[in-house]
């Protein structure tokens, strides 16, 4: 896209007001320097100085159809003109249609949709549904996970960010899901790691008391914690364990869903159907905040004659739902899911494997579809991470240098601890990917300087 004329004066004013008044997520307020964004289109965004960036982060992994899709923008405008808002206890066209389109795409009998404003609220409500449905309280969640930053969601989260708000996590028990590259157990291959992880989960349940466990929650493919695709058989094994003990199986597809994994839902890749599935982000590419829980027949039945004890003023907001309807139609019309699957397999994976051969800082390449991670290391032999796993948001020098090098070359990377994730919009083109990988190649030479 043609860039508008640079306008550094407006950029400076935007930045000044931000620095004076906006309190940013996960940040030491005086140590950050947010880029002032002037606009965005497709896979790119630009600042007021005339710099354009190819977005390999999809925002926070949510712009699955890219920025400013004209059909979604028009649908939001049209809905605003027709009925900009309405309370949740009514049947509203945009809401009904969004629920129908989502239910048609979710696996199995996940046919009822509870709408929220985002992922964390979806997790909160899924857990509440599971607790009421079973009459049990404990929820098992994995270390190396991210489920959001509200009360229950942050306690279920298995990364260091929960420390500040964790009161010993009443009702939450954590376990080690499979991750061969950094398993804390002994395992030589994926099959052993899978077997180990299932045995560990089952013994955790035995010690906690199966009659006390309401739910197991897992990201189908843990995203923020490192895009760890599960070994074959793992999720089906968890499904069987849940069935054996009457435990509700919750899959969190907030990041992995709606095309990201090259399928409508990552669960489709593993042929597994949870009892509850949370979603957000890609459902409408984040054009208006929206998330939700897709509910199986069995759990919907619990709330058929007794009220569900939960609700939100903006549940199923018409603008958000209209954006979802338009997004899902665009995804069908433009073959967005197929694009993510095809370019993921034909371009992203081979390019990343080529980078891994050239750069000693790349320890492991993981992923599927448009959902990939490079695990950056100091030492390929020991897998020692490029930065230690103590990151609670502080800047770490080698990753900051890598990030700056990428940005200098017009690539906006996603960085978390010692990893860079390659998560462009699912609408990305082959040419854009090639451009991004050329920049990534150069930026990785900066990471290489920190290897042994
Ligand atoms: N669950 C998963 C798997 C996520 O990746 C995220 C956000 O990244 C959330 C939940 C929380 O979503 P939100 O930030 O919309 O509350």
From TrEMBL:
InterPro entries in the record: Aminotrans_3, Aminotrans_3_PPA_site, PyrdxlP-dep_Trfase, PyrdxlP-dep_Trfase_major, PyrdxlP-dep_Trfase_small
Keyword Aminoacyl-tRNA synthetase in annotation: no
Keywords for the protein's UniProt record, in alphabetical order: Pyridoxal phosphate
Record CDD domains: OAT_like
One Pfam family here: Aminotran_3
NCBIfam families per UniProt: PRK06062.1 (NF004718)
Family per similarity comment: Belongs to the class-III pyridoxal-phosphate-dependent aminotransferase family.
Protein name: Aspartate aminotransferase family protein
Organism: Streptomyces wadayamensis
Lineage: Bacteria, Bacillati, Actinomycetota, Actinomycetes, Kitasatosporales
